[in-house]
Amino acid sequence: MCGICGIIADPGNRVSRGLVEKMNRILAHRGPDDEGVHISGNVGLGHRRLSIIDLSPAGHQPMSDADGGCWITFNGEIYNYIELKKELEPQEFFSNSDTEVILKAYQKWGVKFVEKLNGIFAFAIWDGNKKQLICARDHLGVKPFYYAFQNGVFYFASEIKAILGAGVETAPNEDILYDYLVHGIYHHSDKTFFKNVYQIPPGHLMIVKDGDAKIVDYWNLPEKVEPMDVKNENAVLEDFINLFQNTIKIQLRSDVPIGIQLSGGFDSSSITALVDHVSGGQKNYRLFSFVYQNYNDIEVPYMRALVDHLGWKVSEVKISPETMKDMMEEVTWFQDEAHPGLPTFGLHMIGRICRKENIPVILGGQGGDEIAAGYEYYMGAFLLDKFQEAGTDETIQELYDYGKTHMFSEDKAYIRFLIQALYAFVRGGTSADATTFAKPHVLNPEFVSKRRHRLPKFRAPFSSYLNNMQYRDIFHTKLPRILHSADRAAMASGVEQRVPYLDHRLVEFGLSVPIKYRICQGIQRYFPRRAFNKLLPQYVGMAPKRAVPSPQRDWFQRELQQWIRSILTSRSFKERSLFDYEKVIEEYNRYCLAREVVNSFHIWQWIHLEIWFRTYFDRSTSWSAALNHP
Predict the structure, then answer these.
(1) What is the mean pLDDT of residues 166-178?
(2) 20 to 30 A Cα–Cα from 358, which one of 460, 483, 492, 516?
């Protein structure tokens, strides 16, 4: 809901109000409704407000307790703030905001109060009595929290650019660039693309005191996942739909209008259908979608089928090749780091239209695949589990059922798919359909030789292969980049993105469901599909998972080829130390002549990184000016 920032200097040194105000200005897009700064000696807190709950001045931030001993700057929403407020009775409240609930919860329960929160949040509380800063980030990392230490001073903000604007020195983080360009992995750790700038991991809190920081987890997903003692499928479906219905109800709490981002996929369709159900079909919520101009978008028929079924209307935003070209520098500025490419531009455009039509909150379908095993490449891990659990015959039958559902026409199609799925399980760094997208052979050998290392190893806390793969995607290889892209795109226009599938209770539920209800008879996301059987038309609810191609691969071959070549042949690109320039051009020429293009992400990596370098290190784009101004 907001942008937060702050500086904690050494005791005895006063924080510059002008510096905190500059950080605030850089974050102005995240909070267009109000701004505030609190300076007290060596402590400076800043806030840009996007008003969602309690629109009155009583919700102004930074907010203090009654005696001014504790101050908070908070970004996000606490969905269960009403229930927490009742637990905090008979304390007196002077506002109806969830911010005040956080402050009073900390005063009553200490740092343990974070365990009680259900929401999307990043906040910092300065406890003047204990001389410590308590910082926390929500369970799944929906809301960002970046920080840096420099010369004994602690800086934090919702976006990296605000930290850089405060004067923190940085450089491209070549270790992260290596992981990105060689393995296709990004946003997978507490390190960022900017050296010396870090992020609090999801589900963690950080206590800063006496120039030192201690980071601990308050939510450990493996500890919350317990095998379900279920007697039948209906019990799973009933528990899931009841929990999801509660999630939707509390995420519809708002004092401003709410929209829904609809793509045609199962996740956004199920959210739309459940909103329709819990609101009694009142149609009080607007639907928004982005579609590609002059392109046969396979999601559109499903989207329109749902809209017709529910009797709602959807506002469509059209994306053309010129969209990417015209918005490239702007999107690079707002995203700060790497993002998935063309779909991100669509999210930015939806944010723009929501803001234009005074709808500052939007629900999105992110997370459904990760918690219910929706991606194709999960099949490898699932089949390994199935083999251990039930033996050869049932495993082969599941593979056969999957092939039948996806219309495999010959035996070698099964073998090819099985190899891809197992490779995806072992290797990682794949797209949704298990195809690889990194092209490390075009990198500068000197850059590679300095840091040649194996694929980053991620925690595997479960005995189940499928659970471990979902866990990896949730915290390292998939969901973090999706959430990063969605938050920055919406907040660039002062719009809050909510993600119902990532209620932490649903995540715990999804990984606790027996694997036979996650993937069954060739159907992935089996239990959500069955649970929505009566709420969604079968054409939408039971449609097989689709690896949805965008026209990016085609546009990079044709409509945008001249623009891409102008970037790749620029003097600045040639002088970057990351690439072997001749091999990049050779690879792009091969790409443009190919009859069938499998993936365009490597092309996207090259052009995006070049614009990123120009924006944040050359500071040669118009958007860079905000970093240079005092």
Answers:
(1) 95
(2) 483
